[in-house]
Known about the structure:
It holds the Pfam family Amidohydro_1. By secondary structure, the chain is of the alpha/beta class.
Amino acid sequence: MSFTNQEKFVDSPRRWALRGDLLDFTAAPRWGDTESSAVRFDRGHWLLVEDGRIVGRQAAEPDATWVRKDHAGQLVLPGFIDTHVHCPQLEVIGSYGTELLDWLKRYTFPSECAFADPARSRAGAEVFLDALLASGTTSAVVFPTVHKVSAEALFGSAAARGMRLVTGKVLMDRHAPDGLRDDVVQAEKDCIDLISRFHGRDRLAYAVTVRFAPTSTPEQLAMAGALCRADASLYMQTHVAENRAEVAWVGELFPQARSYLDVYDAVGLVHERSVLAHGIYLDPHDRVVIADRGAQVAHCPSSNLFLGSGLFDWPGAAFNVSLASDVGGGTSLSLPRNMLDAYKIQALRGERMTAWAALHAATRGAAEALQLGGEIGGLSVGQTADICVWDWAAGPVAEARDAVARELHERVFAWMTLADERNLAACYVAGRPML
Length: 435
Ligand code: GUN
Ligand code: ZN
């Protein structure tokens, strides 16, 4: 079955070179450091790309055998990695007046029912992935819906674009409306089939996808844990400790569990490839468990503010933290917009988040936490050419601000504060232009 048309994407030359102000990371910057040796900034340097990979990074102009794209005076970053976002929720962005549990019931669950229709799933995946690319996000860890076809559609559309994508059919067999529940036996069969067809193919990977503890029976959670234990190369994604009422509900549903996180950990769902969204209401023991297991928390700042969920303790995290839009709880697919919200969350906590912390979490930090550091998240030789070119400023306000910035962090922080998809000048996935 074909899910999308490939013709829409133009091919690029086999060998080409791009010049601009290259910015990426060689390590994790320390919290609070505005000057950091982890930041690698090469103004007006060239990246050489061959067969979709970066093969050179240099000051010297390449010879005439290289097709040249000159982005001098523009900011060149690795494509962003959104580690937690919901494909079927574009239509519920900006839904008024609720916290998490009512928001799910009133807006999100009814909207997700439509993805039972294969045509709707396919059209939704196409629009969603194009919107990610238009925001400068070239890789993502994505929730589809409970419907198998919604995962198939995402895999198909991502493969057509050559994108690095992690997803898997959502598991939910209780506390959800008709048309949005599976059962343990059929869900297991669907997962096994999807894993055999998509996991490790092209740049696709499968994530065992538990929506959250309240919508899975203990039997389904045990099945999900068994899938992870049977194949350590699988990812796992879920939500944890996002909202106070949600945490209290999990306590009622799983009275034997030490904590919300423990519901997952007890069945083997917390491991090196686990992406745990939110993690606002973790206790000190949970924090140690996440660090020990090598799992990551996907911090979802615009969602946490919009749904009034709470203020994530980023500087207190001894585990990997990546950055995520969590659309449609989140209000923008743009990771710079989410970085600004992350800054405001820390400001409310009396902390200061640097542009380096945010950019690292959206690039190299996420890539390493996903064990994909050799492939994505940077502009090093050998990595796949997932590259975005940004205008330093878009419009008179940003231009005025950019003109007076003195040192690098000041300039990049102002860019992060003011930038959105209007700033995106070019986006390449494995060397192919996507805009
Ligand atoms: N918890 C369970 N499902 C969801 C969801 O779709 N969005 C958010 N933000 N939290 C959830
Ligand atoms: Zn979410």
